[in-house]
């Protein structure tokens, strides 16, 4: 480190925490837990709200992600704003990176076709490394870099980025299957916005004012505690939720019932759009449902990950069921 500027030498003095930042992080972790609870309930069929795809739920999820990535940038300035404290940095970084590895392993075991290979913890680990130089660049350069990362995905997409190998960069036109994916473009730009905001706040003396705010009421203490332990909470809350909800769904059969209702509703609407009568469409869709159950095709149909063998079974079932609508055809097709 001999060639490093004086401001980038390691600072060993202990820095006091800002309770306000911990409280904000605690609010974000509660919002994230609430979203994951609703997603799990939707996935297993306990609620009908389309948590995975409804634009309002997607906006809620993106808002929570924005808060976490933005706060990660703020945290870099709070911890290393006047000089990088290398030992605490690497200790924290190894915890985050280790958590990311655990998330990948856990989701690969649970959801092998849509496991998390570059989720929020992976992104925070990478952004923490990439963000260090921006603790010391001119403010205008940090802001310009943030825009250079946030704006391009609004104007450029390409199918080459649909594959896992490149999807972590962003720019896909069809996102690859993953339960969580936080690409460099635009989210590293959000982290830089957090760095920029925190550096501006420090320059304006806002850190000193925020440090004087020391709430001691019970809600503030609970939120502050959750904010300080947000990484641990993030790692353990989903296994706990899934450990309760998944067995309950298996015992009650609610997931299978929900999938059947979703399939019949979607099939009926698609069939009637071809000017086929509702009664014939009901017969056709019920036949299709029985074929999916018979051939054990629930997971391929609902995940969209259909192998060649599964596709052959679906096409054979479609021909059989289409005969209920077009009995005069040898290989009828309602499309």
From TrEMBL:
State a single Pfam family of this protein. Answer: HGSNAT_cat
Segments forming domain Heparan-alpha-glucosaminide N-acetyltransferase catalytic: 17-239
Q: Which UniProt keywords apply?
A: Membrane, Transmembrane, Transmembrane helix
In the UniProt record, does the keyword Plastid occur? no
For the keyword DNA damage, the answer is no
Q: Which InterPro entries match?
A: HGSNAT_cat
Q: Which residues cross the membrane?
A: 20-37, 57-78, 90-109, 115-136, 143-161, 181-201, 231-250
Protein name in the entry: Heparan-alpha-glucosaminide N-acetyltransferase catalytic domain-containing protein
């Amino acid at each position: 480190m001999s060639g490093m500027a004086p401001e980038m030498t390691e600072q060993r003095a202990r820095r006091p925490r800002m309770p306000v930042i911990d409280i904000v992080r605690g609010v974000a972790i509660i919002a994230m837990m609430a979203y994951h609870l609703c997603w799990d309930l939707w996935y297993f069929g306990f609620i009908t709200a389309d948590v995975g795809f409804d634009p309002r739920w997607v906006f809620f999820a993106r808002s929570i992600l924005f808060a976490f990535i933005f706060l990660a940038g703020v945290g870099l300035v709070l911890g290393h704003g006047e000089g990088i404290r290398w030992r605490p940095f690497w200790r924290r970084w190894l915890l985050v990176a280790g958590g990311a590895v655990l998330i990948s392993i856990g989701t690969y075991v649970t959801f092998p076709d849509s496991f998390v290979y570059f989720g929020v913890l992976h992104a925070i680990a990478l952004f923490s490394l990439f963000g260090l130089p921006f603790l010391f660049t001119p403010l205008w350069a940090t802001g310009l870099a943030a825009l250079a990362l946030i704006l391009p995905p609004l104007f450029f997409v390409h199918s080459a980025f649909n594959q896992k190998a490149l999807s972590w960069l962003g720019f896909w036109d069809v996102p690859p299957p993953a339960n969580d994916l936080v690409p460099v473009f635009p989210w590293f730009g959000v982290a830089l916005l957090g760095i920029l905001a925190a550096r501006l706040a420090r320059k304006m003396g806002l850190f000193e004012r925020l440090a004087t705010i020391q709430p001691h009421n019970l809600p503030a203490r609970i939120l502050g505690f959750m904010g300080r332990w947000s990484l641990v909470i993030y790692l353990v809350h989903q296994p706990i939720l899934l450990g309760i909800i998944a067995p309950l769904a298996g015992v009650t059969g609610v997931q299978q019932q929900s999938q059947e209702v979703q399939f019949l509703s979607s099939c009926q609407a698609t069939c009637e759009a071809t000017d086929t009568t509702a009664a014939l469409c009901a017969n056709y869709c019920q036949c299709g449902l029985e074929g999916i159950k018979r051939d054990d095709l629930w997971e391929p149909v609902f995940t969209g990950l259909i192998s060649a063998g599964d596709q052959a079974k679906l096409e054979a079932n479609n021909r059989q069921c289409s005969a209920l609508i077009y009995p005069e055809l040898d290989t009828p097709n309602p499309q």
